[in-house]
Amino acid sequence: MEPGTIDADISVEVLVERYPGAVGFLVCGEPFWGTLGELMAQKRIENPAQVVEELRAFLEHEATINSSSA
């Protein structure tokens, strides 16, 4: 799965499993079992689509850094 395919329906567990660096972006400090969309709703995120885009960009940047240092 490429970061560009991440959406609000992905489970947080799968997201963190595939992209461990997502933990650094999410930093909610507590475990959450549900979808990214449910987590954003619980945290009352006003613009979930923007957060998903920022997460994708974060993970793509992280992948670029990791591939260039390999």
Compose a concise summary of this entry:
The protein is mostly helical and 70 residues long.
* Overall geometry: globular
Q: Please count the beta strands (DSSP E, at least 2 residues each).
A: 0
How helical, in percent, are the residues? 55-70%
The N- and C-terminal alpha carbons lie at a distance of 20 Å
What is the radius of gyration computed over CA atoms, rounded to a whole number of angstroms? 12 Å
Number of helices: 4
Order of helices and strands: HHHH
Low-confidence stretches: none
Mean pLDDT over the residues:
90
Which sheet architecture does the biggest sheet show?
none
Explained architecture:
This protein is mainly α and 70 residues long. The chain has one domain (3-68). The protein is built from four helices and no strands. The longest helix has 21 residues, at 48-68. The protein starts with 11 loop residues before the first helix and ends with a helix. 14% of the residues are buried.
Highlighted features:
4 helices, 70 residues, mainly alpha, single chain
Q: Helix and strand layout, with pairings?
A:
Layout: H1 12-18, H2 22-26, H3 36-42, H4 48-68
